[in-house]
Amino acid sequence: MSKERYPLLTISSTIEQPYNYSLGRYGGRLVRELKDNKRIMGIKCPKCGRVYVPPRQVCGRCFKKMDEFVEVSNTGILDAFTVVYFSFIDPETGKKRPVPYGYGRIKLHGADSEFLHFLQESDLKKLKTGMKVEAVFEENRTGSFKDIRYFKIIKD
Amino acid sequence: MGQRVAIVGTGQTNHRSSRKDVNGVELIQEATDRALEDAGLSRKDIDAVVIGNMDHFEGINCVDMWSIDGNGGLHKPVMKVTTGGTTGTTVGIAGYYHVASGLFDTVLAIGWEKNSESDTTAAIITCADPFWERPTFGGAVAGLAAGACGYMHRYGITERDAALIAVRDRKNALNNPYAHLRKEITVEDVLNSPMLAYPIKLLDICPRTDGACAVIFASEDKTKCITDKPAWVHQVSSRHNYTFFTDVDRSGRMPTLYEACMEIYKKEGIKDPLHELDVVEMYTPSSFAGLVWIDALGVCDEGSAARLVSDGVTEMDGELPINPSGGVLSTNCIGATGLIRIAEAAMQISGKAGEHQIEGAKLALATGFGGCHWSDVLLIGSSKPN
Fold this sequence. Notes:
The complex is a heterodimer of chains A (156) and B (386). Chain A is mainly beta. Chain A has one domain. Chain A is 9% helix and 33% strand. In chain A, a hairpin with a 4-residue loop joins strand 3 and strand 4. The termini of chain A are far apart. The model of chain A has no long low-confidence stretch (mean pLDDT 93). Chain B is of the alpha/beta class and 386 residues long. Chain B has 2 domains: 133 residues, Thiolase/Chalcone synthase (Peroxisomal Thiolase, Chain A, domain 1, 3-Layer(aba) Sandwich), CATH 3.40.47; 228 residues, Peroxisomal Thiolase, Chain A, domain 1 (3-Layer(aba) Sandwich). Chain B is 35% helix and 18% strand. In chain B, the strands form 2 sheets. Chain B has a 9-stranded mixed beta sheet. A two-stranded antiparallel ribbon of chain B has the order 5-6. In chain B, a hairpin with a 3-residue loop joins strand 10 and strand 11. At the A-B interface, strand 6, strand 7 and strand 8 of A face helix 5, helix 6 and strand 5 of B.
């Protein structure tokens, strides 16, 4: 190799690749119920009786196909949460996601799995594990995850 | 029962936050070269290659093919294996399976990552469900933060308790020339570092690193000709888990890690892991996880790891040293991280760990962790397994 020194180069590349994902019948049912009826649907395993949200075709433990949709409550308990402060690129938008924002793992009444969604509150001083929370729906719903705007804290 | 397999050589790059001097192939070659040199072998001795990284971080797919110049696999059987955070341990386990099957004698396992090439969190988000999880999910940092929040509530641990893990591992890294972060920190440093996602602060979370690791697995016959200090693979266990973060069972000890460890102990006849194991290289993505999951190793009661750590049990001179290499909190080239745990465990057994050697180590545990709480565990020892 020659003794000349060259700068170490980096090339920048941003990939934009459109995708169209199928929600399937089960995910699609939850989306329709959110939009049309402001209801959160789970699905119950005929073998172990666990209720999963979001609904899906098969119970992973029992490997059994499920078809019993059950409505779960719009309220639940905040099992865990975090408030995100650091800035990062959102791969869905290609831009930095606005921070701070709070999100939580919510145990909706009637469900055995938790549900992940935004929290209205992003002030750490006002958030505590174990709080009761309730879904707040958008007025204009389009069939999206964001048809639930966020979960707000409700007093006992 | 598989055939006996030993680790006969390992190689690592000098891990850095950014290796601008090499592209991916060149980074891979560095580790491959070092592993071959450590074993006293050359490319012609390798029967097959297993390689893995977490594809999204570099966005150049099919590394098995494009890295062929550097991975030693030209015109040989090569498989890409990738399982998120556990990629490194899975790559190692796949290398082990190849030889244990009796179909291959000498197999090269390579884990690597150039984390500097992308926004780490953006890349990690792409493994979450596009509809149900990506809007909220803030990558490993936020996911582990919510987990840590849950642990604080469940076990009453504090940010100060967790900080002890970061302090321990960063101190150990001073004795590891390959480690990325080699600067001692105090509990106050951790508590005062910027909050990324509550309760995880900058010094509670693993860094992003460019690095590669290669490990050579060999059959019993080949091992005889290669080294007189092999590190035998005694047991291997894996437990995968749900894709939805919200399906994970959080009711007790980290279930996949606990189950995998218990299976290994049962098969090996280990009744008292705290005293029977000599060293653990534990995949600790955050200080909180690194603290709480010690109970999943079966060395203490559920939720009581804080006491074990503050008593010094897991320090270099304690009853069961954890992460003499400095662990994941000091070095995290994600596709390599799990394999580095295996390499470091093997180095301990073969007496090659230099300044971070645990004297007389005969039984070492290496663990891997992946995104939605799945685990790989390996038990590596100096004696030939039954």
